[in-house]
Design a protein that fits this description.
By secondary structure, the chain is mainly alpha-helical. It has helices spanning 2-27, 29-51, 68-109, 122-139.
């Protein structure tokens, strides 16, 4: 089930990037980012109300975890900027390389309380394949 959800997330990210890029063409990068996040706020508000979710554990979370919202905004802006020059597929491919490198570092050092998963040489093969794909997509 998690594999299906992860694959669906990838599809949604590609659609999001496409929609964000087109909205930026109409409104500009920063105004479109505000509109995108307002729509997201509306969507999650409906989900919270419909599911009767509560915010009872807010005080337990460390303060810096809330910076994920700012990271989301910056991600949308960077993706929107990249989209106009590289298109959807290359933007996502380069993003995948960045995500993979960051994930390897987080796992290897067990950052932010994550379980340590040591870096193994086999992971280099995956990174090289992603990089080769980026090069091929850039050239052709």
């Amino acid at each position: 089930m998690n594999n299906i959800i992860s694959a669906a997330t990838g599809v949604l990210i590609a659609l999001m990037l496409l929609f964000n890029g087109y909205l930026a063409g109409f409104f500009g990068i920063y105004t479109s980012s505000v509109l995108i996040h307002a729509a997201g706020l509306l969507a999650i508000t409906v989900i919270i109300i419909a599911g009767r979710h509560r915010f009872g554990r807010c005080k337990e979370a460390k303060w810096y975890l809330y910076s994920a919202g700012a990271v989301g905004v910056i991600t949308v802006i960077f993706n929107t900027i990249s989209f106009s020059g590289m298109g959807v597929s290359l933007t996502l491919a380069v993003s995948l390389l960045g995500q993979s490198l960051a994930a390897i570092i987080i796992d290897h050092y067990g950052l932010m309380g994550m379980k340590k998963v040591k870096f193994e040489r086999q992971k280099i093969t995956g990174l090289v394949l992603i990089l080769a794909g980026i090069i091929i997509m850039s050239v052709f």
